[in-house]
Amino acid sequence: MSLQVNDLVVEIRGKRVLDGVSFEVADGQRLGLIGESGSGKSLTALAVLGLLPEGATAHGSIRWNGTEVLGMPDRDHAALRGDEIGMIFQEPRTALNPIRTVGRQIAEAVRIHERIGRREARQRAVAEAARVHLPEPQSIVGRYPHQLSGGQRQRVAIAMALACRPRLLIADEPTTALDVTIQAEVLRLLLSLVAEHGMSLVFITHDLAVLSQVATHGVVLDEGRVVESAPIETLLGEPSSPVTRALLRDATATLWRPDGSAS
Which ranges carry the ABC transporter domain (predicted)? Predict the structure, then answer.
């Protein structure tokens, strides 16, 4: 078992925002965290990464390959981020540094964790840009985020997260700001790269239609609590929670399939 979250409680300035969250992600598994805005999805991911906001306290257990990471020193946690656990943040326009070239940002984790020089780092950035199908990778790595389209920025974010070949990838609503066509392209790319390297995936979304195409198991959150945990087929066909049933009714995204068709 690669990731085990058990009875996770997070409080921010005395207010409990996560209350007893538990789930497991096995090696190679694709798990989805789903819920409305404010349900605690992203906060759960930040707790795993050791990036909780100032003033937050956490209790319970988060184990990565048997090692407790909750309360781990910042230096040790930083060694995991980008190397063993990769993260695609919600909105690349704000997640990317506007004054650094995308090539420098793609190569940053590699330089930190593999201690390579600038020339090799640029070569790696070009290779990673090509791997996520960015056009003209030799030149695009010299551009800045504002010079790229939304879909291209999202591909840069994926390249950054996967540059060190992490064992676990956390994707926090990576297609929310994209139109349906670009969304489908990015999801196909993401799934192909996850499968290629045998990574585990935690996919965060508010859209059950999207989740049904990405994950095999879903954990439904509401107001910081797990209200349902089941295979995706069960969430779609026989949801037990009123929250899940509401999410199913509200799933408005075009249902996307890996072959590129929609329904």
Answer: 3-248
pTM of the full predicted structure? 0.88
Q: Quote the strand ranges of 123-259, DSSP E.
A: 168-172, 200-205, 217-222, 225-231
Please tell me the distance from the alpha carbon of residue 21 to that of residue 23, in angstroms, as a whole number.
Answer: 7
Round to whole Å and give the CA distance between 96 and 255: 29
Shared domain check, 229 and 131:
no
Taking residues 117-121, what's their average pLDDT?
85
Torsion from C-alpha of 49, 36, 95, 129, nearest 10 degrees = 90
Which of 165, 190, 214 terminates a domain? The answer is 165
CATH number at residue 254: 3.40.50.300
C-alpha torsion angle, residues 69, 218, 256, 82 (rounded to 10): 0
Strands 67-68 and 200-205: unpaired
Of 36, 32, 26, 24, nearest in space to 61 by CA: 24
Amino acid of residue 243: V
Query: What pLDDT digit, counting tens, does each position of 11-53 carry?
Result: 998 899 999 999 999 999 999 999 999 999 999 999 999 999 9
Counting every residue written for the chain, the total comes to 263
Q: What is the pLDDT of residue 91?
A: 73
Cα angle 6, 8, 11; round to 5: 170
